[in-house]
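#random but structural
TW: two for the price of one
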Amino acid sequence: MAEESEATLAILERIARTLGDERSALDAAALAARVKEGRYFVACVGQFKRGKSTLLNALVGERILPVGVLPVTTVPTILRYGDRLRARIRFGAGSWQEVDPRSIAQFTSQELNPDNVRGVAGIEVFVPSPVLSGGLCLVDTPGVGSVFRNNTEATRDFLPQIDAVLVVAGADPPVSESELSLLEEIGPNVEHVLVVLNKADRVTLQEMSAARDFTARIFRDRLGRAAEPIYEVSAIERLEGVGRARDWGRLGERLRSIQAGAGAALLEAARERGATRLAARLAAEIQEQRAALQRPLAETAQRIERLRELTAAGERAVLDLRALFQAEADRLAEEFGARRTRFLAEVQPVAREELRAALARITSQGLARRSASMALAQEIGKHQIAPWFAVETADAGESFRRGVGRLASHARDLLRRLAEEGDASQLMPLAHELDAASDLTAPPRFFFHPLERVAGSVSIFGAIRAFALGLLRRRGVIDREASRLLEQLLEINSSRVAYGLIDRMRESCHSLEAALRGSLAEALVAAERARDRAANRWAQGEAAVSGESARLSELGAQLDALVTADAGIPRP
């Protein structure tokens, strides 16, 4: 199997080089090297400021990846094993360049490389860490949900290369809508999803327990799969050598067990995914070059000019999408805000009266009374908000379909214009991205779980205070505290529908933008490459043109034979 895998990728690389597609050739060579060396990728994903870079630094035992207040990861950065600490960077389709590992922030940070204006295509840092010695590669990804659009796009562009996922969440806040949207996209293709609750040093044991239960429940309900054991850690404690051991040992053991038990399967799956993408890309390239060779050069030049116009139109469409999104977000926020105001006005008096009656039946004092009253506040809050959640989440699903449908229709206008140009072969990747981004036919997938406040979470000072209040028979103070908690639960949770909906729409808008930009740019590059090669052959005479046409036919036949022979590659 290993020999067959290497042979398949070698053929794909050779076809790409023959076609002049250097990017695909480099991708095939990189994938072949990865399979041969037994390297697999565990991507660290999560929302901006979850502490992903710090967590990876703690796993490898060195402060390598830059961290900071602003987003500092603009492109995926791969940590792999090496006998000494070093780093290298690749720009576009160029070769790797060695750089000082201490300078990688110049290429990865939003501040020093905003929106990846330097065109960094890959970053690898070699680390002499035992964690990486068995082929495990840890990937630091830009945070989803970041205010910087390119960060989310860079993470999504890397998704097909992911073998396993390390989700970094937290107790405050727990897993977000944008993280769940990303996991829904990754989930069907990734077997191992590890969940880490970072920054455990910043919350109480009770708050961490509630976050763990919440995360496990939402994984089950939203993703349709049980979360693996959830690991509670503090990356900063680990790096500084202070605090408790927490779950670092269990997390390390789980990573080793994946390597030992599933490493080969992960590599084969990665090989199949990569070969499938390459085969589809090369099939489109062959078709483009054959068409350019057959049509008059003047017609090809006109076509490229039209593609440039469409690319410019695509950029304008992206700006239109953003404006439409903002208008839609504002409208939805106003609409849901008005409904939320009416709901709170109706439910708060009822909930307060229900809590007052329940508190009157409590006979305990002090800390026991506080614990019981807080538990009552939670239960009543959940009971009162549950029916409203059911109605609002259904409405949110409908609003999502309508809103994203309007955004997607603008992108589809460009598809129709390209189809009229006769470029249907270039539309398939973009059409697939649009369908995935808009998801217009799927049922609503908004499952909002009330974010529970832990009734038992109390400091030592709070416990003494509650005990003293009990001795003084100051039941009213504790009861008012429970009433305030109830108000907070109703207000905070009732706002989460609108926030989650807008967050989900933002992710879809980003996906549409990335699909438009990426597919149009690839179509233009491929067309220009086909034009140059066709012009060169025509300059050499009809014999050269006939030879090139025959060679393209032969390359197409080789690609077809490869797809037929390799059961892991579906036909493009």
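TW: number two ↓
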Amino acid sequence: MLYKKQSLGRVKRAASFAISMNNIIKLLPESLINQIAAGEVVERPASVVKELLENSVDAGATDIQVDILEAGKSSIRVSDNGRGMSREDLLLAVERHATSKIREYADLMTLKSMGFRGEALPSIAAVSRMTIHSIPQGYGTGTKLEIFGGHKSAPQEVGGIAGTVIDVQDLFYNTPARMAFLKTPRVEWQQIQMAFERVALGFPTLRFELNHNSKKILQLFPSQDLILRLQDLWGKEKTANLISVEFEEDRIRIAGFISPAHLHQNTSRYMAFVVNHRWVRSPLLYPLILRAYGQMIPPGRFPLSILWMDVPPELIDVNIHPTKQEVRFSQTAWVQTLVGKALGQALKSHAPNPAGQERGFAQKDWPQRSNEPFLFKETPSAPYLNPSSQREISLPFDRLGLQKAFPKGISSEWSGKALPGEGPGTTGEKGFSGLPVLTQLQGTYLVGLMTSGLILIDQHAAHERILYEQYLKQWQSGGVSSQYLLVPLVVELSPGWTLDLESVRADFEALGFEITAAGRNSWWIKSIPVGMSPGEAEKAFQEILEELRVEGGLSHREGFVSSLLKLLACHSAIRAGQILSEEEIQSLLNQLDQTECPSHCPHGRPLWIEISWEEIEKRFKRK
């Protein structure tokens, strides 16, 4: 009897466990499925703009208008003159995995449209209040459909002009956690502008219009000339000196523009690839640009470049990312070779003096040699070498005051036991300030004499280090010191780029700039950081704008502030190729002694290198 009770208990427990197991796995409701899909497709308002623009392009539209309210949080409206949808097609379009662009697997492998997943409209509708008006071409009436949080209302008949209008309101109203991850309105608006720009770059023959808070921001007219679309988006100043790229081989056509080696930016934002009309990210393509320039641009700087590529659809896979912003090539080595050849040919055809371009300068930027003393006048305390005068070089060593500096002779004044930059107090009593400077090479490197050999100091890197530490101390004390300009500078923003002046005024004042509005898309610069020339101040101002455009503000983030202060130091520092007086050199060395890190510039490049006597003797085969 006891055995039967125990057996019955086991049966009951097994049955209960089976019932509970059957209740663990359930089919999700359709609304939740759409919200999960929306998490992949709709990251922010800019994602909505991108998806709706691509739908308009695929619908055959030639005129597309985007209207934004409150950086997309309140409303995103995209209107086009495309082919429109019938009532039946419209009802299907808001269902998941419904699309007119593919029918079978072979279509996916030879895709020519922008969208194809059939997830954009239902995903957007799941997290917003969406209204769609669509009228097919050749018809006077069409259909209006409202979807609130994924729930459709009854379709209504409407009249109007052929095409489609999609109005997305109250984005993320039913998913407050998603809304909490949105950035400031300024950042979200800038992301919308970038999404708009990327689609417009892929289709220069279409007309686009962008409005924000009922204000027209950008109007792009159709053109067959790629440079005109680029000028409308990036401005004539940035695109004035670009090098044309034209290349075609093995069914791949590459066209576009790249900047000369001496024109580079502090951001990679102006490096773009458009593959089969689609702006894409590609870890394969971006390094090819930097590799093509080699050592012609400094580390941390980026050329302006855009390449339009026509590639056979069967050779690329755009189905590797939910937002279709990445591509994969089936023959990567072949594509790399062709892109490298296209870039190499363009740079080679433009460079009149490749040797002069190696360091990132145009030939005209190099200092000109003359028969005059190269650096400064001969004085007992500051002897010089004149590389242009054989007469001076042939003088006896005692005339130049060098004989006591040879390694086997008497120690020179600069006889620190350690090399400069290895730490405070290790550079000898006089540090850099006591270093005998022989000459200035190419207006860029100071040549100093040590008992152990020669030391070469990069004057720009040294001055960058000095200024960066000064700016950092000023920032920590309340802001960078500024100087007023007798004639204010006028700076125009890129076309289509708007920025709330009041929202960035404090940021710029902290960096030493006083700014006021000068018109719809122009600003006056009334004061600039102390020691910076007006020309360099304008460049620095533009680059800071780019940083703010991407980051959205300083927000006292240590890393971001540091990068801006490095930018200021770079633009304020003496340039490579700039001839210095004896007093200027001495002042530079004196200030270098006061820095906390006199071994590297703020970007990490070395300030100096040593060439020992032993190394020199080995090169001359004396050892």
